[in-house]
Amino acid sequence: MTESKTVTIHTHQTAPTQFVEAKGLRFAYRRFGKSSGVPLVFNMHFTGTMDHWDPAVTDGLARDREVILFDNAGISSSSGEVPNSIEEMAANAAAFIRAVGLPQVDVLGFSLGGLVAQELAVAAPELVRRLILLGTGPRSGEGMASLTPEAQKIFGARYAEPDHLWLKVFFTPSEFSQAAGRAYLKRFRLRVDDREPDVSDKVAAAQVEALTKWGAPRENPFEYLKAIAQPTLVVNGDRDVIICSMNSWILQQHLPNAQLILYPDANHGSQYQYPERFVRHASLFLSEEDARASARH
Amino acid sequence: MTESKTVTIHTHQTAPTQFVEAKGLRFAYRRFGKSSGVPLVFNMHFTGTMDHWDPAVTDGLARDREVILFDNAGISSSSGEVPNSIEEMAANAAAFIRAVGLPQVDVLGFSLGGLVAQELAVAAPELVRRLILLGTGPRSGEGMASLTPEAQKIFGARYAEPDHLWLKVFFTPSEFSQAAGRAYLKRFRLRVDDREPDVSDKVAAAQVEALTKWGAPRENPFEYLKAIAQPTLVVNGDRDVIICSMNSWILQQHLPNAQLILYPDANHGSQYQYPERFVRHASLFLSEEDARASARH
Asked: Between chains, do B277 and A291 touch, taking CB under 8 Å as contact?
């Protein structure tokens, strides 16, 4: 069994769900891709499980590195409760990464997961080599003290097909974007066996509480970003109505070493609208030498 | 002569200066690189000649396409006068492109050249397949009704080495950025033979007049951008003090199909600070299928 495992290269569709314990919690996770270099750990959005990642993105990035998906505490088949603060979510993520035995990782966070990724870089900088922040924003970001009116409407509505929620959350109303959305819905359902159960009803309330505490107004809200020295790639759509695109601009302007990419006619899930383009940009970013570090030598 | 020319692949250093006539003007230009696909025409910044392009950028892009540098009317060894409007500069650029016999090109414009590139896409859309806009801004952009205070100070100062002007215009004061600037100064002086003479004293005044007319406040200033249907890549540094970085955000938000990339700790010449990164991003953009066009098939 161990022998066959070392020669099988798993994919998003085939990677078995594994479990690891830390802090009295049992974390569900999957790892796959090329097992060399620094692995990339994915941090999921509001009410999502690791099955909501787009295989075009995860498998695309796994061509050159190991990819690790996980459900944080209280999500799906991971045990425990969802904490009501980003700080505790980040502490749980750090415990998970250490429990898997990884001294340093690259961290990708999408939306809520992007807040966790920032806090992880602040609280456990030694764990984080590089950051990718997708469709996310800073503490006290624009429109982040509560769900935006659009987010309240979209998450509050009922859909004939529950998955169609994501067509509204991640894609713009344009025909082009909606077609890309339908392709994404097909891709994230491709994995049939060993899927994670949907989150329990308690999850949304705790996550909203954490989100709104993070988004609440405070003095010098962007000051903490100066402490994130890791090279960072900030990516968003130009029409994000969930965490408005201006927040990506604010992140870039206040992080010491961040590159910003905005994609056209794209809402909150721009990396799912342009998965090949995003994989190329993210791969370039992750494989590039740190220009600053190399300038010092 | 003709025979040897077809087998020689010229570079930024070796491409001979050629001349072509149109509209009673004689345009100086150079072409080099892989002669297949759609050529990329470079539009130069304030008071620059075609010798101010960075060979790391031009030769980098010329690996996969033909690159065409030229001096617009009244610049260096091109004949005529520098017009006092962007519209006339764009009309001259269009005349040059047609005179070289090219039915359609990709257009790169940097700073003042980025204004010319936008106007070229508006006035002669059939000539332009894709646009790359570097360190530039829209009509009535922020701080564009005159030279910015920083630009006035930088262009008004005297420098022990005249080339050191560009360390201030294109790079931030950080040690990292200044080191990249010194590397750029070496690269753009690598071509020794057959350089273009510096521009005459009259050039700056006419260009400033054109810049300030473009930047003057008007009603619905960004409306014209809706007519630019070409896929566009907008690139800038995050600390541009010559045409402030916010103008790149405005371009992206108002162009129908634009991708924005901002580079960290970079001023007006971010593509010279990160030439390899920029060449990769620009090459990806130019070689990519148009996602919208392919979605229609």
From this structure: yes
